[in-house]
Amino acid sequence: MVRRLPKYCVEDTDRYGNIRVYFRKAGHPKTRLTGIPWTDEFMEQYKAALQAQRPDCIAPDPARGLPQPGTWRWLCVEYFRRCATYLRMDQSTREAYRRILEGTFEEPISTQGNASGLKFAGLPVTRMTTKHVRALRDRKIEAPEAANSRVKTIRSVFKWALDDELTANNPAAAVTYFRSSSTGHHTWTVEEVRKFEETHPIGTNARLAMALMLYAGVRRSDAVRLGRQHLVDGWLRFTAFKNRNRSPVSIELPVLPELQRVIDGSKTGNLTFLITHQHRPYTAKGFSGQFRKWCDDAGLNHCSAHGVRKAGATIAAENGATEKQLMAIFGWSEAKMAAHYTRKAQRRKLAGAAMGLISMSQDRPKK
What we know:
single chain, mainly alpha, 3-stranded antiparallel sheet, about 5% strand
């Protein structure tokens, strides 16, 4: 008997009632397949989708063709194809690494008007030096975080190449990062949280999303995956989505009364608390876009989903949470991030206690 659909194929009904067939494999985006299943036309698309989503498949670049062996672009392609560390990263992280590295290909090697016309894509790896990597970093000087990301990803390529004996040195190892004054995404204040809650009462998806991220301290990638199956005897138990393939972190948190009240007053899905108007779970990207709209509706254009978790850490630290307690709440494996919040909270308390010492109205002993 012929199966109804080939492996990894699923049916999906759009909002107009039309049935569509998609190729869907875990860790990869869905691909629409047209035509009738098992026909020659359909199977050609199926085979192409299957080939394109193999981990070792690198689509050729029509503009440049296959990379010349031994060049920088060739080394990056080999990294995309063979590096186990890269292949085990989350899809979004792999995409970010790839964008950064491919962005170096068209950069001119020469800093003197590029008289030779040679670009980094064609530079032999054996001739790539620390000076070259520094030049790639300095061309992003207006965006220090982007510059540092370039150095980081280039280092990772050469680290793998050294282990695989494709090169004899790592020219990025000696290139330092730029100091950045950026503190990242804006951290929500208590007043901003209250304004958001006034705009989005209990029963709305917006309020439920805020409660999950604030009172459980979860990332957006976890907020869209949590459901009632993770509630056990008043505790929230789950494995963090981030780094789940490399160094998974199991998190157990008591459900605060504030969070339980919002969950009880909300309409939730079967496997996820948060569901779209189509009664489906949110994707991480879709959730970010929707949360951006919820913030705008509340007049909080400068706020985002990223800053809610930071607000939770700030509030906990100011209420006396230790570094180890913060690590347990937020799933951090190292104390560096927790120490940032505890130091900040300690400075604020010390300043508050000491400011009175500056006052000229302090009682002084009589001479």
